[in-house]
Amino acid sequence: MKHSGEIDFLYTNIGRGHPFYLDGLLEQLRDRERSDLLLNVGDVFAQSRGLSLIGWKAARWLYHNGSSGPVGRRLYGRLRRRSNHNGSSLSFTILGRDLRKFRAGVFGTLVVAHPILVGVFRGRPGLVYQHGELVASDEALMTGAGTVLVPTDKVARRFVDAGYESAQVVVTGLCIENALVARAEYDYRNRQTRLSKDAPLTGLFLSSGAEPPAHVVKIVTGLNSVVKGGGRADVLVRRGGRLDRALASTELPDSVRMHFFTERREEAKLSAKLVPKADYLVAPSHERTNWAVGLGLPMFALTPTIGSFAPLNLVLIENRGVGEAIRDLAAAADFGSRLTELHRTGQLIRMSERGWGHYKIDGFARGADFLITITASD
Questions:
Q1: pLDDT (tens digit, 9 = 90+) per residue, 302-341?
Q2: Whole-angstrom Cα distance, residue 58 to residue 324?
Q3: How far is C-alpha 67 from the chain's CA centre?
Q4: Mean pLDDT of 238-242
Q5: Whole-number pLDDT of residue 290
C-alpha cells in the first residue's frame, strides 16, 4: 500500500554523522511548509524491543567506548563491517526484527542513512539510502535500496560498481548545514581577507561524538600551543563529555571561548554561528570534512582515524590540499608554530582556495527536491 505525500525517516541516533545527514533533509522539507507532505520520524531505539534493543544498545556502547583502546576498536570495527553483503545476515535479523514493523504495510518513501538499515530493509519498495559522506568505504556500499543519494560523481561510481544501476544513484552535491550554505560565499570571502593579513587567527576546535581520549588530548595540547602564539580559538564542547572534563582541569586564557551543547541540534546552531568566524578547523575527519572541501575552511585532522570513513576522508583532505593531519602529540604541541608558518607562507589561504567552488554545496536542498518529486509521483 502506498500513501501519497508521506515520507518516513528512520534514525539510528548513534554518533553524529548518519543522523546529521537525515537532519539536513528533514530541515529542508519542513522549511518548504508543504501542506501535501506528511513527515514521519522514527528511531531504532524507540522501535526495538528485547534482543533487538539490546543489540542497538551494544552498538551505541561500542561507538562511545570502542575508540578508547585497541580491543574496543577491533570490536567496533567488526560490528560495522558488512557480513554477507547481498544475502542474509544474523546481525540484520536481530537488529531489524522489530524495525520491520515500522510503518509496516505502508510502502511510501522510507529514508535511512545507515548501511545496516539498508540491509534490514533490503528490497522494501520506496527505500532511499542517503549516503552523505564524501567517501564510500566498502561497508557503506550496501545494496538493496531503490535509490541512493550521494554527494559527488566519484562516490556515485563506487555505488554503481557495487551493483546499483546508474539511474538509481542521484548526485545531490555536498551535504552541508543549510544555514552555512545560505551565506557560504560571503563567509568564504571574509575568510580569505582575514587569511591574507598578519592578524591573529581564530580556530574552531571540536571532537566527534565518541570523544576518543587521544583526540581530546590533542585538542587540549593544540589549544595551549595556539594561544601561546597569540592565537584565538572557539571550542565546541559536549556537556559532561571527555573534552568538557579535560578542559575543566585546564587553565586557558580568555582568548579560548568554550561553547557548550547537550544535543545534536543545539550543536548545529552553534556551528552555524562559529564556522563563519573560523579561519581553520581542528577536528576528526568525519562529516565536517565537508566544510574543508566545500566551504574553504582549512582543516587539521585529528588522529588516530577511527572507523572506515575517517581514513579515507583524511586521504581526500591531503590529496586535495585543503588541510593536513595532526599525527601525534608532538605535532599537537607544535601546532601553534606550524600554523604560524602556514599563515606566513600563504599556504593557509591556498588551502582555503582549494576548498571552494569545486562542488555544489546545496546537497540537502537537492535531496529534498528529489524526495518531493518521487513522493508526489506515488
A1: 999 988 899 999 999 999 999 999 999 999 999 999 999 9
A2: 33
A3: 17
A4: 95
A5: 97
Q: Quote the CA–CA distance of 247 and 220 in Å, as a whole number.
A: 7
In the structure grid, which three cell numbers stand for residue 129, read together?
A: 539510502
Please, which pLDDT band fits residue 82 given cuts at 50, 70 and 90?
Answer: very low
One domain for residues 237 and 127: no
CB 370 within 8 A of CB 149: yes
User: Is 1 domain-assigned?
Assistant: no
**3-state secondary structure (DSSP) of residue 346:** coil
pLDDT of 17 reads 86
The CB density around residue 292, as the number of other CB atoms within 10 Å, is 28
Question: d(Cα 276, Cα 187) in Å, to the nearest integer?
Answer: 5
State whether 96 and 236 are in the same domain: no
| Cβ partners under 8 Å of residue 372, min gap 6 | 29, 32, 34, 37
Beta bridge partners of 111: 9, 128
Cβ(367)–Cβ(27) below 8 Å? no
Alpha-carbon Rg for the chain, nearest whole angstrom, is 21
Q: What is the pLDDT of residue 2?
A: 53
Question: Which domain covers residue 62, as residue numbers?
Answer: 6-173+362-376
109 and 141 share one domain: yes
pTM value surpassing 0.90: yes
Q: Count the Cβ atoms, other than its own, within 10 Å of residue 247.
A: 20
CA terminus-to-terminus distance, the chain: 10
Same domain, 11 and 132: yes
203 and 335 inside one domain:
yes
Residues 293 and 311 in one domain: yes
For residues 208 and 167, state if they share a domain: no
| pLDDT of the residue at 61 | 86
Q: Are strands 232-238 and 147-150 parallel, antiparallel or unpaired?
A: unpaired
Distance CA 259, CA 247 (A): 12
Alpha helix segments (H runs only) across the chain: 17-32, 44-47, 50-65, 70-80, 90-96, 115-120, 153-162, 178-182, 184-195, 213-228, 242-248, 264-274, 289-294, 309-320, 329-333, 335-344, 347-354, 363-376
The number of distinct structural domains making up the chain is 2
Describe the strand order of the beta sheet including 6-11 as a list of residue ranges: 38-43, 6-11, 109-112, 127-130, 147-150, 169-171
